[in-house]
Design goal:
Structural class: mainly beta
Bound molecules: cobalt (II) ion
CATH architecture: Sandwich
CATH class: Mainly Beta
Order of helices and strands: EEEEEEEEEEEEEEEEEEEEEEEEH
Number of strands: 24
CATH topology: Jelly Rolls
Strand content: over 45%
Length: about 280
């Protein structure tokens, strides 16, 4: 089989900002140099051991027209929504929320001290799924399988398939791949990523290379087309995410927590929210 290796075609560093009730975070997709990367609309990292940076959390706010994916590495986050769903995200766990036609929810750190470290990714929905009923997939840390690879490389598969392991996230229209890979110092791995998908790597910790391009901690590398990407750790090792999904190639109309295809649909979402119609 003729494999084509993906390379880094664009590097984005995050922009420091705050959102919700004063949560300090780094926005990597969704502002600055990378407004979007179809179908990805936003990618945030929040990492702090200072409660002043996160304790306000994200009180009640709506979403419509896309999916929010939260992956928590450290800390504990409570969530609750207007349909009566609630739960607690644990360290190492994830939540894949398909907002669809919309809901109002809160995401609040439960802890009062210590490290909070996590990520939120927004994945767009195609026109015919934007008004679907909301759906949650709450994933406990134990439900995320990992592949133990040569040289001590470990790959946790949240969504999609890699190294003979299938992630627990199911039934997502863009067929996502989301892998969290830990590489010991000076190791490398080739990760298959289907050619039809848009893909990026994110250096969550340490430093290394993707497709031969050096990436520092906190930088994202957008990948070219191809069938696989080569990852290599530097002398201190690294933790890198590989994220991919099918692009939608649809018009994007975006206003805060609403992402639709047209301005008219955005206006409708704002009216629905003001009238209390965005709830399950
Ligand atoms: Co939210």
């Amino acid at each position: 089989m003729d494999q084509r290796k993906r390379t880094v075609v664009n590097i984005a560093e995050g922009v420091r900002t705050s959102d919700g009730a004063g949560v300090r975070l780094t926005r990597i997709i969704g502002s600055g140099r990378m407004m979007d990367l179809d179908p990805f609309l936003l990618f945030d990292e929040f990492k702090s051991d200072n409660p002043d940076d996160y304790i306000g959390g994200f009180p009640d706010h709506p979403h419509r027209g896309f999916e929010t994916v939260t992956y928590l590495i450290a800390g504990v986050v409570d969530h609750a929504d207007s349909a009566g769903n609630s739960g607690t995200l644990q360290p190492g766990g994830a939540q894949w929320m398909t907002a669809g036609r919309g809901l109002v929810h809160s995401e609040l750190p439960k802890q009062k001290e210590g490290l909070l470290w996590g990520f939120q990714l927004w994945v767009n929905l195609p026109a015919d799924s934007k008004m679907a009923p909301p759906r949650y997939q709450d994933i406990t840390p134990e439900a995320i399988p990992h592949a133990q690879l040569p040289d001590g490389v470990v790959a946790r598969v949240l969504a999609g398939q890699a190294f003979g392991v299938t992630g627990p996230v199911e039934g997502i229209v863009t067929i996502p791949l989301y892998i969290d890979i830990s590489l010991p110092p000076n190791t490398s791995i080739s990760v298959p990523v289907e050619d039809e998908k848009s893909a990026f790597v994110y250096m969550a910790e340490g430093e290394g290379e993707a497709g031969g391009t050096a990436l520092a901690a906190g930088t994202l590398g957008q990948l070219s087309k191809g069938d696989s990407v080569e990852l290599a750790a530097g002398s201190s090792g690294c933790r890198v995410f590989v994220v991919a999904a099918k692009p939608l190639n649809e018009p994007v109309a975006r206003w805060g927590p609403f992402v639709m295809n047209t301005d008219e649909e955005i206006e409708q979402a704002i009216q629905d929210y003001r009238a209390g119609r965005i709830r399950d």
